Amino acid sequence: MRTPIVAGNWKMNKTIAEARELVAEFIPLVKNIPDVKIVLCPPSTALLPVSALLEGTDIGLGAQNMHWEVSGAYTGELAPAMVSEFADFVILGHSERRAYFGETDESVNKKIKSAQAEGLIPIVCVGESLEENKADETEKIITGQIKAGLKNVGANLVIAYEPIWAIGTGLAATAEVANNTIKIIRAVLTELFGADDAQKIRILYGGSVKGSNATEYFSQSDIDGALVGGASLKATAFAEIVVAAQKETVK
Q1: Which of 94, 96, 128, 248 is the catalytic position?
Q2: pLDDT at residue 170 in the model
Q3: How many Å apart are CA 196 and CA 207, to the nearest integer?
Q4: Of 1, 22, 133, 237, which shows the fewest CB atoms inside 10 Å?
């Protein structure tokens, strides 16, 4: 059985003081939940202080992005080794990075290779726009993103299916629709990595996940957790999602 992951993407939120306050409130709420891998992904300024607060816990730490080069004249960027000093995971290819900063499947592919070479576990995001969804192009778009993004990479990664139209909008794919899309993703992973490795890769759902709908997603056959945005900015709300994942794990 795949251990579910519940990852919180804080995006461009929380000062260091606010991050410390959030983590200090959150840790006691999830201290007795052993069957879920929790990952916090704060902004880069908070990686060091959050890392210190997580010492002695099983909670993982992730960065929200990184460059593929090991060093160089890339102002404002983080090298893989800079991330791995503190983090175990790194979010790559998020739709906001693709939309606002020109990231492509090719650049995501470079980042995945560099992350894996540094021992980081990439959380690779894929998802279709509302227009693509309405045009019944979800399978085409998702398949293309995965095949190009994961070309010649290892299977030590996590996939997050995040329909773009559901991120931060309050809209969400139904659990059944999300699960069916994730089954398509797993079929593509099987083609790329073989059945054994594809079954080990955890595929998360992301897009307006909250405590009130988390159980619906986690009860599905192929959804292995969630990449959570807004709800991860409140300790009690995020803990509620973690608890929902735990309840499905121990059924």
Answers
A1: 94
A2: 79
A3: 28
A4: 1
| Distance of alpha carbon 160 from alpha carbon 174, whole angstroms | 16
Residues in CB range of 60: below 8 A, 6 or more apart: 7, 37, 38, 39, 40, 54, 87, 88, 89
Please compute the mean of the pLDDT values over residues 85-95 and round it to a whole number.
97
For 48, other C-beta atoms within 10 Å of its C-beta total 13
Q: Among the options 128, 162, 216, 248, which is catalytic?
A: 162
> Which backbone phi and psi does 144 adopt, to 5 degrees?
-65, -45
Cβ-proximal residues to 211 (8 Å cutoff; 6+ apart), any chain: 231, 237, 240, 241, 244
Whether the model pTM is above 0.85: yes
Contact status, residue 183 vs residue 139, Cβ threshold 8 Å? no
> Which of 156, 77, 75 lies closest to 123 in space, CA to CA?
156
Q: Is the CB of residue 211 less than 8 Å from the CB of residue 245?
A: no
The full set of domain ranges for the chain reads: 5-249
Rounded to 10°, the helix 175-193/211-218 angle is 50
pLDDT on residue 60: 98
Write the pLDDT tens digit of every residue in 206-221: 988 999 999 999 999 9
Please return the burial class of 136, using the count of CB atoms within 10 Å of its CB with bins 0-12, 13-18 and 19+: exposed
Q: Which fold has domain 5-249?
A: TIM Barrel (3.20.20)
Per the CB < 8 A criterion, the answer to whether 185 and 138 are in contact is: no
